[in-house]
Amino acid sequence: MIKSVSTFHKLSVCDGLEALATRNYNTAFPFHFHQTYNISLVYDGIFRTKVGEKTLHAPSGAILITNPLEVHSNPVEINERISYFTFYVSADFFNFSTSSQPVFFHNNVIYDELLFNRLRQVAILIENGGADDSIEQELSSALQSLASKYAFADGKNELVTNHSMFKDLLANENLDKFSLDQTAKQFGINKYKFLRLFKFQTGLTPNNYFILKRIEKSKELLSAGDDLLSIAVDLGFYDIPHFAKHFKKFTGISPAAYSSAITSAE
């Protein structure tokens, strides 16, 4: 049996750049979104992503990009193995590197051998523990080329969804207290209509949305040095295994691996 190996990297440069190196992966990611630009280099296999009603296929040698807040999932075929490297680039660092306003990639799959190899060299630097200054300089230069060739300026509004109906709910910090039945009653509608409206306005089911928010909050707590048990309890998970299961489901790594990468970056 081929073993899947994932290595997470957290850097102190590039506005806290995160990266994930994955070999022989065979686990699907559910619908979710990131605050970052996700730039994936596909080494082997076909990396699929579903954005809206479209399923895109990024084969070996392609660059796969998702924009900040772009809701997407990553289905995987049975017995298929994928190897890739993903940069999680903050919008602030991307904009700084390109000296521009926020940009948007309409084309999520890019075929550019020269740019692929430039980004791959940065990935190799990260995996080998290269100098931080070199990583930031090389990544910034590559992002500048990526944006100038393939991005559209001022595309921020592409993903601004009308969340007015759920504005207060989405801002609620009690992420562990969500109840579908009770929340639907607050809006004066049945739970089935609530589900349809919520997914229409956010792109996610309420369950996935609030689990994802809890995972994002857990990253903050892990970065602050909180222990796994207290994080699990505070965010409404049953126990550490329950928390770890959902964390890996949305990130591809365990909370312990995330915490270890943070420690290594300090």
Strand order of the largest sheet: 1-2-9-4-7-11
Number of strands: 12
Q: What is the makeup of the main sheet?
A: 6 strands, antiparallel
Which architecture of the largest domain per CATH? Sandwich
Percent range of helical residues: 40-55%
Radius of gyration: 19 Å
Q: In angstroms, what separates the terminal alpha carbons?
A: 36 Å
Average pLDDT number: 86
Helices and strands, in order, run as: EEEEEEEEEHEEHHEHHHHHHH
Instruction: Give me the secondary-structure category.
Output: alpha+beta
Question: Could you state the CATH homologous superfamily of the largest domain?
Answer: Regulatory protein AraC
**How many domains would you count in the coordinates?**
2
CATH level 1 class label of the largest domain: Mainly Beta
Strand content: 15-25%
CATH topology of the largest domain: Jelly Rolls
* Helical run tally: 10
Structure summarized in a few sentences:
Helix content is 42%, strand content 22%.
Your description of this structure?
Helix 1 packs across helix 3, helix 2 packs antiparallel against helix 3 and helix 5 crosses helix 6. Strand 1 and strand 2 form a beta hairpin. The longest helix has 19 residues. The chain folds into 2 domains: 153 residues, Sandwich (Jelly Rolls), CATH 2.60.120; 103 residues, Arc Repressor Mutant, subunit A (Orthogonal Bundle). It is an alpha+beta fold. The protein is globular. The strands form 4 sheets. A 6-stranded antiparallel beta sheet has the order 1-2-9-4-7-11. Strands 3-8 form a two-stranded antiparallel ribbon. Strands 5-6 form a two-stranded antiparallel ribbon.
